[in-house]
Automatic annotation (TrEMBL):
Keywords: Hydrolase
This protein's name: Thioesterase
GO terms of molecular function: acyl-CoA hydrolase activity
Domain Thioesterase, first and last residues per copy: 82-161
InterPro entries membership: HotDog_dom_sf (IPR029069), PAAI_dom (IPR003736), Thioestr_dom (IPR006683)
Organism of origin: Dietzia psychralcaliphila
Domain of life the protein comes from: Bacteria
Statement: the UniProt record of this protein carries the keyword Hydrolase: yes
A Pfam family of this chain: 4HBT
Disordered: annotated segments: 1-32
Length: 172
């Protein structure tokens, strides 16, 4: 394994998790973060997700214009005391998916950040019903904001959470 290659190792018997995250991109590498080509390089394994998305256990499965699909297979570390996936973890998944969906519609050099996020928890997400699938789709792109809708589905295809968010765009 390459020294810079991120890893996530869980030992359920010891209740321990050891992981590393990818290095932050240099200033010259940050500009090409937007656009379908940059996201396709992540899907193809040529680039990494953000350190936060990696830590939350996300994988970018597919990208298209205005749409991304991500998956997440949470370990026991992501559960609440009721034995279901913690809502904050689900919210983190959705926030990442909103950002990656936004990246499909902005040009190189345009930055973005979450301005507003609303998550509606519909049913508990049980670990045995994962990996979860997170679909995010851009609904509207304006000069300064991007509106994105998202759903979190269990392995039965049932919606566990739906979300909407507004991303602020930082145009050069």
């Amino acid at each position: 394994m390459d020294d810079d290659e991120p890893f996530d190792s869980v030992d359920p018997a010891a209740r321990s998790r050891h992981y590393s995250w990818p290095p932050l991109p240099t200033a010259s590498e940050r500009t090409p973060h937007a656009g379908l080509d940059a996201l396709r390089r992540i899907v193809d394994g040529e680039r990494h997700l953000s350190p936060g998305a990696h830590t939350l256990g996300l994988e970018l499965s597919s990208v298209a214009d205005r749409v991304v699909t991500m998956t997440a297979a949470p370990g026991e570390w992501a559960l609440n005391n009721g034995g279901t996936v913690h809502g904050g973890i689900v919210s983190g998944w959705v926030d990442s998916a909103l950002g990656y969906a936004t990246a499909t519609v902005v040009d190189e050099g345009v930055g973005y950040s979450t301005l507003d996020l609303t998550v509606r928890y519909i049913r508990a997400l049980r670990q045995e019903k994962t990996p979860a699938t997170i679909h995010a789709e851009v609904e509207h792109v304006g000069r300064s904001t991007c509106v994105v809708q998202a759903k979190v589905l269990d392995t039965d295809g049932r919606t566990c959470a739906s979300a909407s968010g507004v991303m602020m765009l930082f145009r050069p």
